[in-house]
Structures
1.
Amino acid sequence: GAGVSQSPSNKVTEKGKDVELRCDPISGHTALYWYRQSLGQGLEFLIYFQGNSAPDKSGLPSDRFSAERTGGSVSTLTIQRTQQEDSAVYLCASSLGPMNEQFFGPGTRLTVL
Amino acid sequence: GENVEQHPSTLSVQEGDSAVIKCTYSDSASNYFPWYKQELGKGPQLIIDIRSNVGEKKDQRIAVTLNKTAKHFSLHITETQPEDSAVYFCAASRGNTPLVFGKGTRLSVIA
């Protein structure tokens, strides 16, 4: 069956530009998470969507970061006015519910020049 | 909030030997402790998890132990094989909160 997919797999952008990263979760999964993984570091939580509840945005590092989840399925992470320190791999995960196994996508590698 | 420390950051073992990775957590209310394996260029994949109502769980060559009093948990891999080489992450949560991950351990199994 299809797993979590993310697009693009790689994104190179110039400092100051906006970028959108897409996540397609596993069908039927109500929970969706975004994480950021910097080189040699662990996974840093960014934002969490659960069903129709208001998202948990407590991990977003600045107001340049935002995310939406339309129709309880696809999610888009938007980074405005990108900075070099935004360069990282952005991982999306989904799960049946908040206490279930999280399935990760392959990630989007973002490079800000 | 929760803080997860993971050690060692790198680990090299000979094929067939055992590998042990240790994590500590700070939030005594955490009750879910998964371990993920991440291969190069891929997203992390769950390999085993444990909840706070048990002290040990085993799945073939992989086992996890949990000490709630000391707030630490460990991953044990026996009879290591080259395909076990990867980065391993521990994590902790209260179950209904996002996972907090350790910084990872790069395991190298030398044939």
Note: Chain A touches chain B through 23 residues (CB under 8 Å).
2.
Amino acid sequence: DQQVKQNSPSLSVQEGRISILNCDYTNSMFDYFLWYKKYPAEGPTFLISISSIKDKNEDGRFTVFLNKSAKHLSLHIVPSQPGDSAVYFCAASARNSGTYKYIFGTGTRLKVLA
Amino acid sequence: ETGVTQTPRHLVMGMTNKKSLKCEQHLGHNAMYWYKQSAKKPLELMFVYSLEERVENNSVPSRFSPECPNSSHLFLHLHTLQPEDSALYLCASSQEFSSYEQYFGPGTRLTVT
């Protein structure tokens, strides 16, 4: 049973508009979340993170929102650029429980159309 | 070389072959990881080494054998693999096992025929 789910395998967005990528989790012990971006033929690269003590974290065009009651997080990219086209993975860990390993979602492929 | 490198980038092997995947990190990190990414599945953690000691082994079949001779190098020895082992194998490192961020290599695309 997948503990971290990204239910949309793909998403297309027009350049300049907002991209919203969603991630749901089932384990209430998860307290730290990451988003990674992956280009073809490259490894995933860290994008942004959020701790469960926050509900929002912003870094430039990227904002991650966390809704603990719904066990849902989302990544907003505004404005979207063609260079943002990649696969985005969310990952979660239960650090306060001493579990440092991350559980990953299956990824969402974002295509930003010029 | 900077970051995390992996060789080879592509590998095709028969079920009776023995091969090894190599990972090297140039970041001075103390923890290294092997992940497996199969098509339409999430990244699965296989092994974790911290200061050259294995700290995680996620029920991986014995046909996969990791080796960490020092904190900069990590190997994955493969023997008598099955076609379902075809996947992208990613290596990662982090400053410590408890660090928040992991740095990934580009991966080895493995095909078992």
Note: Chain B touches chain A through 23 residues (CB under 8 Å).
